[in-house]
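Submission sheet (multi-component)
Chains listed below:
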Amino acid sequence: MTTLAAAQYAEVFSRPDPLRITLNGELFELDEPLSVADLLVKLSIDARRVAVEHNLEILRRPLFADTLVHEGDRIEIVNFVGGG
Amino acid sequence: MPGDTSLVIAGRTFKSRLIIGTGKYPSHAVMAQAHAASGADMVTVALRRVNISDRSKESLLDYIDPNIFILPNTAGCYTADEAIRTARLGREAGLSNWVKLEVIGDERTLFPDNEALIEATRVLVREGFVVLPYTNDDLIACRKLEDAGASAVMPLAAPIGSGLGIQNANNIRIIREFARVPMIIDAGVGTASDAALAMELGADGVLMNTAIAGAQEPVAMAEAMKHAVIAGRLAYLSGRIPRKSYATASSPVEGMVGR
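Outcome: structure written.
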């Protein structure tokens, strides 16, 4: 194994397993544990415009920053769209 | 007209008796123009999952005048539980506790499931919601919704998006006669005369989406609806003449030349 390949090997296997969550019904992977507020930032979503359900419970907006997303969590992010 | 009052629902006063939607417009810009032309100060919106993979879409809310009151709906919900969950999310996303409650019972007609609707109304009212339920043109269903705490009753004119106009004018008139809360005609309006007729029958307001958004000229139709609602209201308050089977001359019958 060349030095470069060994370095790549080490880098890949030192990485923690990705976190798997269900986001709006789809499988979604996160590199690291993060708060709901950070998740919204990562997704470029304005927190003031959405409602979030965390494991079927509505998450009040003031709790976004302090609520961590865990492996297997189910997150729903909804917003207003045109309707009658 | 002197003596007319404003539309008041759950203590909130609205300048217009026309409530319109935000769906199916050719563009957000056309929607905003139609809203302005209609004079409506309440619009309905739906709640859906954010598109995670495509964040390019502009936000609907950027195109709604901040002075317009936003009424989230529970469109597309088929059970009381689903509708309750959606209403709670709408409250969280929108900062108001109002909901246009829909519990659909049939996919083809989009007729409401009144049993589930009444149950959901009861639960949401207990949680402090102002509930405006979309229902049939059925007096008993409307009465049960009132008893469950609904702040208005919203019987349909015809199936949602059908544009058929008022199918059972007498039922609508009867519901208005008995209702203790505002009666809003919700769904089925096709053109301005349908809205005027709803108001002439005593409706306190009319709610529509497709009739405006689906018209070839949505902005002009929005203005037509504004006038129709005002005209219908004035006609209702003015006390129309009784219907007769035969003619009554408008000009004097005496003094005719050459007789």
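Remark: Chain B has a mean pLDDT of 95.
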